[in-house]
Amino acid sequence: MNLFRTIGLMLLFLLATLSSSGAGETDLRGIIAKFATAKGFSEIGAVVHELAATGDPAVERPLAALADGNLYVRKADSLVFVGKESGDSVQLFDPLSGEASGEAAKDDITKIKVNNTLRRVIRDALGTLTLGAKDPAVRTAAADTMFKTPDAANIEPLDTAIASETVASVKALLEQARAASVLVSDRPDADKLAAIALIGARGDRDAVSLLTSVEANSSDAVKQAATAAIANINSTLAFWDAGQNIWYGISLGSVLLLAAIGLAITFGVMGVINMAHGEMVMLGAYTTFVVQQVIRTSFPGLFDWSLVIALPLAFLVSALVGLIIERGVIRFLYGRPLETLLATWGVSLILQQAVRSIFGPTNQEVGNPSWMSGSFNLGQLAITWNRLWILVFALSVFGVLLYVMKRTPWGLQMRAVTANRRMAASMGIRTPWVDALTFALGSGIAGIAGVALSQIDNVSPNLGRGYIIDSFMVVVFGGVGNLWGTLVGAFSLGIVNKFLEPYAGAVLGKIVVLVLIILFIQKRPRGLFALKGRAVEA
Hints:
- The strands form two sheets. Strands 4-3-2-1-5 form a five-stranded antiparallel beta sheet.
- By secondary structure, the chain is an alpha+beta fold.
- Helix 19 packs across helix 20 (506-523).
- Strand 6 and strand 7 form a beta hairpin.
- Residues 1-23 and 534-538 have low confidence and may be disordered.
- 69% of the residues lie in helices and 6% in strands.
């Protein structure tokens, strides 16, 4: 008997559960049906609020469809559907389950119209609805939305969400969103002063924007508190702005380092003014473009590996072209720097025109892999993943090149030729091959710099032209042929540029930097870190 009683109780419980579930869905459908009879945006907004008040995640589908203009009423039976236009007909879907419900001619249905005000109401309703989501990221996004669009009606839902929140970081954001809603409500000044203190502790630009509007529309006590909070936040933001400029400068410096490090080798070892160095960067970028095109058409699943595949190929392509240039042109012009400048300038024009003939004169699309897309915040610093990875890549290239120069026989030979070419030749070093391989190495490094630059700049035949002058400035400022000088010079010029740009503009800022370098060279003609040895050559 006890067994039968237990089974009976379980059946009753299941029936009650199913009944309540069905009633819940029936209630939701009853509310959704009100869209068919609602007249005017105000009545539609009332139905939106009623749906949001249920707190049921299932209403997200019809509300999102309404915001996108995809909610329809069938004229024959006044039923509401989510619709997707397809030619002269509209495919209909159940507003709660999303199941297909046939098709209807456009003349047989009526689209529920929305305006911008109603879209904001729907957005806020969706934000309130997601406060109870299981995923903390969804709750975080909802809190952020409600902070940026405060509404006195949000206070009670936020109170409920705060009471049940278990994640400390999300709870803090919910409290800030509640404080923002308090500031636009008719709550007493004491509540608003407490809200200002909480928002002031947030300390970001969204807080300043909110407090500025409060400052303009509040009584004396609240206004004074808002003014003081804004002043405190602005002083903190000034510090973060300086840090942001330093980060931008370091980011620019990493780009300059990649573009200049190959030039530092060829200029330092061979004394060649290579005006085609920028075109080696361009060839690396176009190699990346070709690799991505092949992957897109034949191996789309490997797209995230496209840059890894492009790196060695870009190095080989640019190094091979550099070797051809050195063997075909430059080796006949050693000791005549002006003629090497003119010859390599002509080579750069030939390479640019060749790329225009093959790929066209317009910019080519090079995509970002998923691991280089997006950004994150560090305090109040906004850091993009592509810039961060380029910085890591630039320092890695610098480290590998430094190892090659200091710890390998070839590096020893390069340094010997740099110090005294004639003495190195008399010791049995084949200086012509050292020159050729060094030029190929410098060109190859420029090629892998092009892979990195393709992620932050337009890939076009003129890509290298924008970096050749900056590269020479880095090399001359840091010290010709000195890798550490190139590193310090790149980051120094990058940071100085970014601090000058807000005041002088990008173009005038570069001019100011150029003038400063000229003045510096007057005092230290051989740069920050001068190499010893080349002056003994006659």
